[in-house]
């Protein structure tokens, strides 16, 4: 069963993707247009070719996009193409796990080791000074 493409709904989708309000599209189409006419236009199943060409020029989207875009097919393609691991091969950075507590413990252990080395060096220096004094 062939599903019919709703051109008015496609105009609305693309307009919204471009973040253009109905009033803005009406303004760009000319004096004869207003928000209400755009709303009615977006409810039409089929839009006249010359009007689609005007909308295409204003939104900078090919006429074929309004005539052929089928959301259900797009969703099916996306859902069948992108699975749970769709991007796993795209980024070969490995897993980065930074746990703040573990990092804090590691830094604390390094600090203790440094402190112990400094104490040992201080003791060795004191021994050398005592030998020099005697």
UniProtKB/TrEMBL annotation:
Q: Which SUPFAM superfamilies match?
A: lambda repressor-like DNA-binding domains
Q: Please spell out the taxonomic lineage of the organism that makes this protein.
A: Bacteria, Pseudomonadati, Bacteroidota, Flavobacteriia, Flavobacteriales
The HTH cro/C1-type domain covers 11-66
Name the domain of life this protein comes from.
Bacteria
Q: Which GO terms describe its molecular function?
A: DNA binding
Q: What organism is the protein native to?
A: Flavobacterium panici
Q: Where are the coiled-coil regions?
A: none
InterPro entries assigned to the protein according to its UniProt record, in alphabetical order: Cro/C1-type_HTH, Lambda_DNA-bd_dom_sf
Q: What is this protein called?
A: Helix-turn-helix transcriptional regulator
């Amino acid at each position: 069963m062939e599903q019919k493409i709703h051109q008015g709904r496609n105009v609305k989708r693309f307009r919204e993707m471009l973040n253009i309000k109905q009033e803005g599209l009406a303004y760009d189409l000319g004096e004869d247009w207003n928000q209400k006419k755009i709303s009615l236009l977006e409810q039409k199943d089929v839009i006249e070719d010359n009007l689609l060409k005007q909308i295409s020029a204003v939104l900078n989207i090919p006429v074929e996009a309004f005539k052929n875009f089928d959301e259900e097919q797009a969703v099916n393609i996306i859902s069948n193409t992108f699975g749970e691991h769709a991007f796993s091969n795209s980024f070969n950075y490995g897993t980065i796990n930074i746990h703040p507590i573990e990092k804090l413990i590691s830094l604390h252990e390094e600090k203790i080791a440094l402190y112990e080395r400094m104490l040992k060096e201080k003791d060795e220096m004191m021994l050398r000074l005592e030998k020099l004094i005697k």
